[in-house]
Structures are given as C-alpha cells and as structure tokens.
Amino acid sequence: MLWEAIKLAAMSIRRNALRSVLTLLGIVIGVGAVIAMVTIGSGASQQVQENLAKLGSNMLIVRPGQSTFGPGGNNDSRAFDERDSTALKANLSGVRGVAPSSQRNAKVVFGALNYDTTVTGTTADYFIVQDWTLKEGRVFSEGEERSGTTVCVIGSTIATELFGKADPLGERLRIGNFACEVIGLLESKGQSAFGTDQDSIVLLPLRTYHRRLAGNTRVSSINISVMEAADIPRVQRDAEDVLRERRRIAPGEEDNFTVRDMTQIANTMAATTTILTGLLGAVAAVSLLVGGIGIMNIMLVSVTERTREIGIRLAIGALERQVLTQFLVESIVLALFGGIIGIVTGLGLAAIAALFMDIPFSADPQVIALAFIVSAVIGVIFGYFPARRAARLDPIEALRRE
User: Fold this and answer.
1) How far apart are CA 318 and CA 316, in angstroms?
2) 91-102: pLDDT as tens digits
3) b/e map 43-59, b = 16+ CB within 10 Å
C-alpha cells in the first residue's frame, strides 16, 4: 500500500512538474542555506583554533598592567625586565620554556630592497614557546644572548621579499643603524588568529634588541609554555606569586600585571564562533518554515483540483486512511526531494566559500542527517492538514464538484 502511494505521489509530481519545482524551491533554499552556514561556520571555527594553536601550545602570556589582550591594549604599569623572566624560569616547574620579548616595527634593508616588518627581541626559549621550527640554520646561542651579538633569525616573508630564491643564511640585514647576520630561517606559519602575517618577523637576541634598537631594557611580555595542560592553573598561580613578590605587591593589593591562559582565549573565540554559526543557521532555518507553508499551499490546491478523483475513490470503497496516506506521502516526497537537492546545493556553496575564504571544508554528517530528517518532518507537519481535509471529504459532495 505504501509503495502504491509513493508511485501515485511520483505520478502527481510529474504531472505538475513546474508547480512541484516551484514548491521545492522553498525547501531547497532553506536546507541549502542551513547546511552552507553551519559548514562555513564550522570551518571558520576550526581555522580559528588552528591559528591560535600556531601561537604556541599550553601557553601563558604575562603582560604588565591590566590591559586587554591583543592589538591596541593600553598599558601604564611598570614594564618587566630580563630579571623578571629569569626569576620565573628559576622558580617555575613543569614548563618547557620562558621567553621574554619586546617588539617594534622597523624597516629592514638588504641591498637595494627594503621591507617594513616587526622586529622582536627575545631568547632561544621563544622558539620553543611559540612552537617555531627552523627551515634552515640555527637559533641564538647562550653566548650570543649574553653578549648581545648582532645575529638574527628571519621569517619566510622576509626571506621572500628581500632575498627571493637566494639563500639568506650568512647575509647581513640592516635594521636602523646596525646590521645583523642571518643565522636562521623559520618555517612558514601563515596568518595568525588576528589576521597578521606571522612570517613577517625578524628575531634578535634580547640584549641586542635593547642596545641597538630600543635604547632601554623593557620587556613588554613574557611567554610561558607549560608541559602539561593540566598544570596550567598551577603554573599560572605560581607565576603570579613570583611576580607579586618581585614587584612588591602587598597582600590585598591588585596585581599590576596580567597572566592570561591562551587555552581560555581559544575556547572563548571558538564559543563565539559557534554562537554566531548557530544564529546564522537559525536565520537560514526560517526559509524552511516558508518552504513548509509553500508545501501546505500547493497540497491544498491539489486537493481542490482532485476533488472528483477523491470522491470516486471514496465511493468505490477507499478508506479515509488510504486517502490520507496518499496525500501525506506526496507531501513527504516533495519535502524529501527538496531536502536532498538542498543538501547537495548547501555543500556545494560551502565548498566554494571555503575555497575563496581559505578555510577548511568541514562538513558535519550529523548536520546533514538532521537536515534530511527535518525535511521529512516538514513534509509530515505541513502535509497533514491538506491530507486530512482530502480524507474527510463527503463522497457525494465530492462527486458533485465539477
């Protein structure tokens, strides 16, 4: 019986092909929009997490003052110095590295070429903390850090802009009024979570940076990489205790520095992306409601057009539930066709968007299955009223209709 109802539904859809296609559009647009939005949002969330992971794993960022994390933060508190970093390294356990750093924008010059970039003064621990790997060369030696030797490690963007395909190792870059020898080339990391080019960087030993470029001994931030994620809260508390003692902060007084956990920042950004994806998906889901109303409308029209047919079927012995099943199946078939086409369309749009936005294509099978089920449910809900109306027609009245 069900198979016969499906065949009758297919015949009715083919008989009114144009009307059926127009009816499908609402479901196609709704399902396609939901699939596309959720897939793009999932890819964007994955991209944010990958970009944050490039900044370093299990990392704590220590900054003077209570400034907001990220570019544009305001900071009026006393800066750190190299001794603060040394004290943290000596007193913290379970850490992979402690790296002080200061940075400023500068123009680097090689031959007739120049490039505006970020110059960072730091120590060899910086490469461990930030998960940098070397493509060529080496990092700073302990002797070079102590003596403030004019050596540098450069990012791939600097190598491309100033050296092209030539080997930069052993060459001398000019920064301000001094020149430094290139001893290392970093592997590419691409853009950060904040949209900046992480490969546009020149790294100097911290004392070289202070003496040759900054003219002071300030350290703007200290990055701490913790070995185990479970130890992050303990290391964070220990770091706060060490710095409170060094900065002579009395009990009860507010800290004049900030220790931030990158894991919390990553989770916050991921949660924000998820919420935005949910909102976009909810807005797109409104189209499904419109599509359902379209199905109800077309089924009511179909019942009106086929009143005599329904009357004849009821008169020769068809049961109400058989008529109800016929029209309900027709509604469900329409909705499922629309759902399948919408899923394919949505995945196609998401793939194109992922390609142009340079984000991962992250299709979720659960979302696809849910979209298919929702299509069927819409067919049942919005097809039930017209189907019930057809099943409850009086056979005599139906046969009188022209």
Assistant:
1) 6
2) 999 898 999 999
3) bbbbbbeebbebbbbbb
Residue with tokens 């030993």: 205
Helices (H), 202-261: 206-208, 232-246
301, 20 in Cβ contact below 8 A? Answer: no
Give every CB contact of residue 125 below 8 A, 6+ residues apart in sequence. 89, 97, 98, 99
| Residue among 44, 48, 37, 23 at smallest CA distance from 349 | 37
pLDDT in tens, 38-86: 888 778 777 766 666 655 567 888 998 765 444 444 445 678 988 999 9
Residues forming beta bridges with residue 102, ordered by sequence position? 121
- Separation in Å, CA 307 to CA 103, 294, 314, 333, 400: 80, 20, 11, 21, 9
**Location of structure tokens 């080339």:** 185
pLDDT digits (tens, 9 = 90+) for 12-36: 666 667 777 777 777 788 788 888 8
pLDDT at 120 over 60: yes
What DSSP designation does 63 have? E
Phi-psi region at 82: left, alpha or beta (left = phi > 0; alpha = psi -120 to 50): alpha
- State the sign of the Cα–Cα–Cα–Cα dihedral 239, 241, 242, 245: positive
Alpha carbons within 13 angstroms on the beta-carbon side of residue 54 total 18
* Number of residues that this document lists for the chain: 402
Contacts of 202 (CB under 8 A, 6+ apart): 106, 108, 117, 118, 119, 120, 152, 153, 154, 155, 158, 173, 175
| Spans of all domains in the chain | 2-51+267-400, 78-255
Q: Is 38 helix (H, G, I), strand (E, B) or coil?
A: helix
pTM: 0.61
DSSP string, 70-132: STT----SPPB-HHHHHHHHHH--SEEEEEEEEEEEEEEEETTEEEEEEEEEE-THHHHHTT-
DSSP 141-154: -HHHHHHT-SEEEE
231: DSSP letter: G
Tokens in use for 241?
A: 């205790």
Average pLDDT over residues 274-289: 71
